[in-house]
Amino acid sequence: MFSLKYIVLSTLATVATAYFTRKIYIHQSCVNHYNPLSILGYRFLMKISYCKNKIDKRIKQAKENLQKEFISNTMDEMLVLSIPEKPMLKDVIIDRLHRLQKDDCKWKEGRAFGYIYHGGEEHSNLLNTAYEMYAHTNPLHASAFLSVRILESEVIRMTARMLNGDDSTCGTMTSGGSESIILAVKAARDYFLSKRPNSKPEMICCNTVHAAFIKAAKYFDIKVIITKLDKDYRANPDLYSRNITSNTMMMVVSAPCYPYGIIDRIEEISQLACKNKIWLHVDSCLGGFVLPWMEEAGYSIPKFDFSLPGVTTISCDTHKYGYSSKGSSVILYRNPDYRKYQYFCWSKWTGGLFASPSITGSRPGGIISAAWTSLVSIGRSGYINYVRELMGSTVKLQKAINEIDEIIVIGQPNMCVFAFKSNNNKLDIFVLADNLENKGWFIERQQNPNSLHLTITLRHTKIIDEFICDLMSSIRESIGIRPSGKAAIYGSAVAITNPEVIDDILIHYTGLVNDGIDNCGILAIT
């Protein structure tokens, strides 16, 4: 017979083993780009005066390299740093704006793979007319601007039906994808805390989710569990499942993810959400106005929208492939019981009863009217035709890339967004990016793995052959070349393993964006 003491100790040992085994599994299932030993080593070295001086010198050099990059891009133009004593004449204003634009990327020529989603000159002129009609309206004052309220409601309803919502599906227009995402996270947190007020909320995602989710988590004090991708570069449902706890307030998936244009395993994670009664957000900011038309355009995709019962919210940008003016997005909720946690109300303000649906108070009615105009002027048939054009160009470009030995497309992208990486040790992908930029092409650089990102828009459909030609010649020019200039700066940055160092450099870079023109702000104190 076993003694009671033995049974108790054995049980405790079994429980402890199971607990720590699960902890180890969860740790191994999560992304950890930063070596904890390097972080501890860095903090130790920073306490030693000699080492601290050496490290500070290297960080200062990195910042100075960034500063030189900004200064070299500063145009030869008289700066306006104080409000003029007398009004500028109209012609002077317009001339200056034209001069400032001359060194911008030539996006109208299709030279930028991203940034701009343009529906053509005629479409753009129509949006500008719609914006001008509503330029001074503000939906915050719903009783004063009834027409804006109607237009916003119609945009929300059209978007909801496009994404297989029912009559209960509802939402709000926002200023862009980041605000839509932040509002979804805020609503999910408040909904969770209404059920479990003393809990510490956690959010499960994978490392290809948009940075806005991490921003939201930092704003709202939410713990983020970032899991690894599976072999197909998709969110791994098994790792999501393993990381679910009583504190899990939300799971996040992408349709598609920005880095690779790949749709996560949303159907399986939807089942997890239903089983565990967890809020599931689908980030379709990028693909929301492409994916719904894919099957009618001749391309098959997995389910991703409200047709899946586990999906709670979807973010969808009208200002990307919806071809509206910049500054508009839609956040959708399965029903109003979820949406109410997005809202802010204050009934004790001396200025009157206050209620606001989004982060911003005042919102531009012109943006809402432009979004409505874009959707109705293009129509279903127009969007389907656009998708056919985009996917035809995408397939052609991907085929060309995969036929070049030195580079390869990452994974199996689901739409007209994808990335490619080097397939040759002698080809630095950032050197290739620099050479392409020297030929006038603007391409986003990525990390883990180092790669170049391509967003195909309507501006590219007629110049794909030209890009392929420049890509091939740039590869020949880049083989065996050591990084310098931007390639060296970016390559060094992504190679840093300490988050405290890279964050310091990123904060400096962000300050340079506004302070670099006249050595004020951050440059005045360095």
CATH architecture of the domain at 146-342, by name, is: 3-Layer(aba) Sandwich
- CATH topology name of the domain at 146-342: Aspartate Aminotransferase, domain 2
What is the SS-derived class?
Answer: alpha/beta
What sort of overall outline do the alpha carbons produce when their principal axes are compared?
A: globular
Describe the secondary-structure layout:
Layout: H1 4-29, H2 36-45, H3 49-72, H4 90-101, H5 121-133, H6 146-162, E1 170-174, H7 177-195, E2 202-206, H8 211-220, E3 223-227, H9 237-242, E4 248-254, H10 266-276, E5 279-283, E6 313-316, E7 329-333, H11 336-339, E8 344-346, E9 354-356, H12 365-402, E10 407-409, E11 417-422, H13 429-438, E12 444-446, E13 451-455, H14 464-478, H15 486-495, H16 499-515
Parallel strand pairs: 2-3, 2-4, 4-5, 5-6
Antiparallel strand pairs: 1-7, 6-7, 8-9, 10-11, 11-13, 12-13
